[in-house]
Amino acid sequence: MLRTLFDSMSYGPAPEASDVAEAWLEDHGRSFGLFIDGKRVMPASKKSIEVRNPASGRRLAEVADASTADIDAAVKAARKAQKSWGKLSGYDRARRLYAIARAIQKHARLFAVVESIDNGKPIRESRDIDIPLVARHFYFHAGCAQLQDDLLPGMAPLGVIGQIIPWNFPLLMLAWKVAPALATGNTVVLKPAPYTPLTALLFADILQEAGLPAGVVNIVTGGDEAGAALVDHLDIDKIAFTGSTEVGRLIRQKTAGSGKKLSLELGGKSPFVVYDDADLDGAVEGLVDAIWFNQGQVCCAGSRLLVQENIADPFLNKLRRRMTTLRVGDSLDKGIDIGAVVDPIQRDTIDRWVRQGVADGAELFQPDIPMPAVGCFYPPTLLSNVSPASTVAREEIFGPVLVAMTFRTPAEAIALANNTRYGLAASVWSENITLALDTAHRVKAGSVWVNSTNLFDAAAGFGGYRESGYGREGGLEGLREYVRPAWQTHKKTASTATTNGADPAGRAWGAAVAGRPARAGSPAKAGATPAIDRTAKLYIGGKQARPDGAYSRAVLGPDGVLLGQVGEGNRKDIRNAVEAAHQARGWADRSPHHRAQVLFYLAENLAVRTDEFAGTLCAMTGCSEKEARREVDLSLQRLFTYAAWADKFGGSVQETTLQGFVVAQHESLGVIGIACPDERPLLAMVSLVAPAIARGNCVVVVPSPAHPLAATDFYQVLDTSDVPGGVVNIVTGDRDHLTKTLVEHDDVDAMWYFGDAEGSRQVEYRSAANMKRTWVSHVQPIDWTAKEQAEGPAFLYASLQVKNIWIPL
Ligand code: NAD
Could you tell me the CA-to-CA distances from 255 to 243, 518, 669, 755 in Å, in that order? Predict the structure, then answer.
C-alpha cells in the first residue's frame, strides 16, 4: 500500500471541517437581515438574495436585499454615530480597532471556512492569506488611529462613507475599506457583493463582541440597485468603490459635481515580464501564483505573460508541465490549488473569452487533469501565440486564463507592458538587478513586484494608474483618502446627472466662444500698464505662438478700460500645448536638485520684476498697490516652498511584512491641465503650477480669463529661468471652452479646475472617459493668501501617484 503511494505520489482528500461554519449559519437560521445601528433588522423591501456554495451549488443562506429605504436608514444611523465616533481620541479609536483585529484572529478559522464556502476559494488561501491580511489591516490602522495627530496634522474626518466591494476577496476588501475609514474618525455603510455577503455578516457579529458603538459600521447586503442607492444618497461624504471599470466609470459620472469624494479601485490586465536571464523555475511558480491564485479572479492577476522570444518555447513547455500538476477541487480540500469560480455566469463569461481567443488565432492549452463532476469549475488555461491587439490580450478575463506574448528587447517589453488602458500591477523577472529595476521604474502601474508576485501588506498602498482607478488603499497614502483639511466645511450638493449617469444638461457646456478679431478698444487710462497696443500670444513648447484662430480677447480693468489683448485659444491650441507637454516629459527624469534650482531661479527672476507685476495686478483687479505687492511676494514664497519640497518628497522605503524593500516612489502624473481661478491671478497660478512641476509633471495652464496678463507677463520669467520648453504651456482664452478640450483629451492625465460649480461638475463627469484624476473647486474656494489652504502636502499629493516597488531579499 505504502509502496503504491510512493509510486503514484497521489494526494488523498484533506478536507477542512465545515462544522463551525455550518453551526454559525444554523444559529442564524440561515437567514440574515441587515446590520444597521448595531442591530439586525429585516429589510423594508422584504426581499432576499440566495447565497450558494459555488463548489457544490448547495444553498447556504438567504440574505436581505436592501432597498433605498434601508440604505437611508443605514446612512442616518452612520451620521448619528459619526458625531461621537469622530470626537473620540485617536487612542480610543485605536483600542476599538485593536479589539477588532484580536477578534478576527480568535475567529480566524471560522472566517476562513465561511469565506471559502461562500466564494469557492481554496481554504489554503483564505486561511493563510485573506484572513491574516484582514487582521493585519486592523492592527496597522489601530496604529494609524493612535498616531493620527502626528500622521495627519490639520486634517478632519470626512463623515459618512459609502463603501461598495466586489466578490473576489470579500472580507479583505471590507478590511481595506473599513479599517482606514474608522481609524480616521468616519463611520461607514458597506455594501458587500451579492454573491459573497457572508463574511461581512460574520464581521458584524464580531463588531458587537469588540464593543464597537452602534451605527459606526452598518452592513447592507443587496444587489447592484442597493449599490446605486448608496452612491446616490445625498448624505454620503465619500464613495469608496472596488469593482469593474465599467461600474467605476458610471459612479464617477453619477457623483460628478456632488462634492462627494471618490476613490476607485478598478480592473487590470497586469503584465508578467520574463527576461531570458530570469530564474525560469521561479518564474513558473510565480506565474502559478499570478494567474491561478483565487482562480485568476484577482484585479492585479498577472494575466499577460510577456516572455523574451529566445526562451519562449522552453519556458512555455515548463509552464505546461507545471499546469498538469495543478489540482482543481473543492475549496475546503487543503490539497487543492484551484477552487471554484464564483458563479456559473462568471464561468460562462470566462469560457466565452477563451473561445473568442481561439477564434482570433490563439493556441489553447488546458491540461488533462481531473475536474470535479459537480460545481462551478474552470481548468487552468494558457492561450499562447496571442497578438497584442487581440481582445483577450486587452480585456480583463477575470478567470484562470493566461495569455502569452513574446518580445525581443527590454524596450519592447516595456512598450508591451504599458500597452494597456489599465495600470494596476506588474511582475518583472530577471536576475540582472539593473534590468529588473529599470523595467520596474518604467512600467506604469501602482504595484510592481520584482522576482515575485501578488505581495500585499497593510503598510503598502495599493491602487492603480489610468483606468485601474485612483486613490490608494493601505499605507499612509490610503489614510489621506478618508480625511479633508480641517478648514474645509465640505459642502455637498445633489449631482444633476440622471440616475443612469447620463448628462442631461451639459451638451452646450464649453462650446466654442465666438472669436473676436483684434481691435482697438477704448483708450487706456493714463499710466495703466501694460500698453494698449500689445497683444500677448500663447506660450507653447517654450515659444510664443499665435492663436490658431487668429482671434484675441480684450482684457479690461475694473473700470472697463482696455488694458490689452490676449490670444483667444481654441481646441487646436490646446492640442498643440498637450503635444508640447508630452515632448517635454524628460522633465520627470531631471534630478530633483535640478527641478529645485529651476524653481528657485523662477523666484529670483520674478523678484526682480516685482514692480511690473504689481502694476499689472493693480490695473487688472483694481487692488491696492500694497495688496498687489503682497500677492507678488506670496508668489515668490510659494516658488521657494516648492523649490524646497522638490528634493524632499520623493517617497519612502516602507516597512512591511516582506523580507526586503518596498519602495513607495512618488511618481509624476504626466501632463496636468490647470484651469486657474479669477481670484489672485498671479498667486493662484503659481500656487498650482509650482507643485505640479516640482514633482516632474508638465502642465497646460489656462490662466484666469478675466485677468490673464499676469500669466502672459510670466512667459518672460519662464524664458529666463531655464524652464525647458514644453514644461509649462499657457493658453489664454475661455476657461470652460479650453477645459472641455483638456478634460476630453486622452493624453491629459489629470485636470485641475478652479471655475464655477457647473464647470466643476462637467470636469468630473467628462473625466470618466479615460478615468483621469480631477481636482475641482466645487467644495469650497481656496483663500490663496492663506498658507494652510493654498500650499503644502495636499498640493504635492495632488501632483503625484504612488508606485510601490517590491524587492524581496
Ligand atoms: P462589479 O463592478 O460588477 O461589482 C462590484 C460591486 O459594485 C458589487 O457590490 C456590485 O453589487 C456593485 N454595483 C454594481 N453595479 C453598481 C452600480 N451601478 N452602482 C453601485 N454599485 C454597483 O464588479 P465585480 O464583478 O463584483 O468584481 C470584479 C471587478 O472588480 C473586476 O473588474 C476586478 O478587477 C475589480 N477589482 C478591483 C480591485 C482593486 O483593488 N483594484 C480589487 C478587486 C476587484
Answer: 16, 41, 23, 18
Vertex 119, ends 118 and 122: CA angle to 5°? 110
Q: What is the 3-state secondary structure (H, E, C) of 432-490?
A: CHHHHHHHHHHCCCCEEEECCCCCCCCCCCECCCHHHEECCECHHHHHHHHEEECCCCC
Q: What is the pLDDT of residues 763-807, one digit of tens each?
A: 999 999 999 999 998 767 899 999 999 999 999 999 999 999 999
Residue 526 is predicted with a pLDDT of 43
Closest CA relative to residue 563, chosen from 529, 610, 517:
529
pLDDT of residue 524: 45
Cα–ligand 1 centroid distance for 168 (angstroms): 9
Cβ atoms of residues 299 and 267 within 8 Å: yes
The single-letter DSSP state of residue 12 is P
Model pTM score: 0.95
State the cell numbers at 235: 448624505
Q: What is the CA radius of gyration of the chain?
A: 28
Ligand 1 pocket: which of 195, 299, 303 to mutate (most atoms within 8 A of CB): 299
Distance (Å, rounded) from C-alpha 83 to C-alpha 5?
A: 64
What type of residue is 278?
Answer: A
Q: Report pLDDT digits (tens) over 391-442.
A: 999 999 999 999 999 999 999 999 999 999 999 999 999 999 999 999 999 9
Q: Give the C-alpha separation, 42 to 49, whole Å.
A: 13
* Cell 450638493 -> residue: 493
- Known catalytic membership, residue 618: no
- Whose cell is 529661468? That residue is 721
What pLDDT digit, counting tens, does each position of 171-212 carry? 999 999 999 999 999 999 999 999 999 999 999 999 988 999
Find residue 774's DSSP bridge partners.
751
Query: Using one digit for the tens of pLDDT, what is the confidence trace for 34-52?
Result: 999 999 999 998 999 999 9
Q: Quickly count: other Cβ atoms within 10 Å of residue 370's Cβ.
A: 8
Triad 546, 548, 550: Cα angle to 5°: 70
pLDDT number for residue 515: 56
For ligand 1, residues with CB inside 6 Å are 164-168, 191, 193-194, 223-224, 227-228, 231, 242-244, 247, 250-251, 265-268, 299, 396, 398, 424, 464, 468-469
If you average pLDDT over residues 64-92, what whole number do you get?
98
For the beta carbon of residue 587, count every other beta carbon within 10 angstroms. Answer: 20
Q: What are the residues whose beta carbons fall under 8 Å from the beta carbon of 747, sequence distance 6 or more?
A: 578, 579, 582, 671
CA–CA distances in Å: residue 345 to residues 228, 350, 783: 21, 9, 53
DSSP state of 181: H
Q: Whose CA is nearest to atom 16 of ligand 1?
A: 224
Quick check: is 299 catalytic?
yes
